[in-house]
């Protein structure tokens, strides 16, 4: 007797197209099973043989949070390479390591949350390290390359599924879950949406992650642009994954809804498909979805829509075709990946200044390498563990020989004496070093919080600590064995951390003057350190209000003195300064200033005073404002990953010529910066696009050890594109890379336009005397702007200047061409009226949500008064009446061309809520012709729309 095996369900048939397979599997799932899929950790469906699935694997510049991995330069460093081909190869290497780790540990996921395409609008943003550039085109070029590498080149199966972060207009950590970015339509379309759109349209993106903040008063997890823009850019099903905890924020922090059922339903309907909330526990989300279904806020069809998008990604990843998936085997820590990490680190180095050809360093040079980062290879929150490590000191030892390199870290050496006369002491550690795994790799999970090491005590001699002040009074204390003081859950101090790190950094302190000494405050807990019969620990909250020990800080040696001694004995001093990526500028914490911390300024001054042949190497996640006038040479590199030191040494020695370029403007001082929460790059004249001051170093800047000549500019317009080419020649004596940059600007625009904007770039390698043609095909659409008067893109007729050169300010060739386009036209206000948010100029305005679901309105940012100007309004056949859709309470005054008030529209009684609008009408004297309309808002008034009639 033969027993027939059950037929293979269609969703298991690799010969069927993915959409049909998705539909089949979706139809087999129960409502409870589909609801459970909405959480980040989707459970298995054993009856169908469907495995558990997790959205989210961090892979910003290497595989993160999964242990040792190849660590590439930070994202802003990859942006500084201006090299999409290199970045594509980095993405490919990362995706192979994701696959390899997934095979070893099923905690890993193939849905990678990378890259970050938020534009680096403001250099004080704490997460500056995560983005590529302040420019949308450079950002999209680098992001597109990285996503193509992550996706792989198989036509059907993706190696990993990249999700772009963070939708939308997200550039502040301060109050990030409750602050609202006021983004006018031109900034939205010309700036913030552009980087996302170009990358999505390139075809290697699986989805996006909304940001924590609000845009125009509406949480990003309810963004109407997910429907009206994102999902129109591709025919692929895009998976929208919430950021961690953000679904609950809609009620708990933002108070945007009264119940979690309402909030969850609204997010799902807006387009969120996977909810990252409550860790691995999916029950709160599933309960909220069930509640929303029971209340009629959602239908099963709404759930199906989200689950279908998830399943589409899972099929693309080959989950249901293990015998056909070409990506099952990954590669990990290969020689090729190590070489690529070094190549990327070298290409990311930017030479900012090189007076008198001090660099490259000649063979036999005696070098003093000094500074807080001279012997460091720092990781950030999204780094993997280091399998290999190269610090600047190690790189210079290797390249020049240890006998020719002298090191002085420059930290202050201190002892801390208690009121009783004893000193803090670090006992010898007998416990095994469990923080290091295979090949000495650091395990981030054990960097702090250890209780297997003895806590601090006191004794008559004490321990000499290395004290580093990172700025804003934030400091770290390091024991002689290299471990940092840290506080574990039991509240005791131990020398237990290899580096500062963790979501809450437990290795940072502050010395607070108190009487004749100082209190030592532990910043992770916010408590003071006390010394008692039960040992050295942070004070308990109820312990006399958290009273701490008063310490006398005895300085054994100043860091400046050690730096000066080393500098005075050297031919050249290399000062390595910058930031620790976990301190004073990181996720959850914005910077407060562009200035280099005072301690590091003192070290730099000591080195320069002892030896004028001083090279400053800034290793940082963001720009600094530094006085470079008396420095012979300056370089910048982001934290460069595992090969950072080797790469820097090769650049200093001239084994490779620097060719990194700045991906954002370096401003000269804090005075050049707008408010952190001012997202109007046009009105506030932000970024190189609009900034009218003199930067410390401009966007695109970077020097070389070679020289390059540009000639033979050719420009023609054909096939809806501008075709630009020129010849670049290496006129130097060494092989080097040059980054040719093409910019454009409207010469006589009818509205404020960028001073210049990047239209294309090419990084080329040229031998001495070699020349090559660089060509750019620029679609005419790249020169369009968002016309608020017409509500769409417009190419304006008139002259446009094209500028080709080595940076946004180093222009070598230029020409002007006239383009046919549309002439400026006045606003047809009698037909369309005026949207409040479609202003040309404003003062004191905040853009807010017209309704919870869609639309914009405007209101005084401070709740009292604001002004709007809508220019060139055409009243055609004449009007005698004005009406306005208003909510809240207050007065709207209308005038023309700066003249007297023609009408006051008043809401005396407040509306029921901010989303209940009342149409208020007033008669005005007859108006004809074209005029500028000026609107003054007084009081907590919301204006959605103004209409005119005869």
TrEMBL record:
InterPro entries in the record: Actin-crosslinking, BXL, CBM6, Cellulose-bd_IV, Fn3-like, Galactose-bd-like_sf, GH, Glyco_hydro_3_C
Fibronectin type III-like domain segment(s): 738-808
Superkingdom as given in the UniProt entry: Bacteria
UniProt-listed GO biological process terms: arabinan catabolic process; xylan catabolic process
Hydrolase found in the keyword field: yes
Keywords associated with the record: Hydrolase, Signal
Domain Cellulose binding type IV, chain residue ranges per copy: 827-950
GO molecular function, one term: beta-glucosidase activity
Any one Pfam family match given in the protein's UniProt record, by short name: Glyco_hydro_3_C
Similarity comment: Belongs to the glycosyl hydrolase 3 family.
Known function: Catalyzes the hydrolysis of a non-reducing terminal alpha-L-arabinopyranosidic linkage in ginsenoside Rb2 (alpha-L-arabinopyranosyl-(1->6)-alpha-D-glucopyranosyl) to release alpha-D-glucopyranosyl (Rd). It is not able to hydrolyze alpha-L-arabinofuranosyl-(1->6)-alpha-D-glucopyranosyl (Rc).
Protein's name in the database: Exo-alpha-(1->6)-L-arabinopyranosidase
Organism: Streptomyces bungoensis
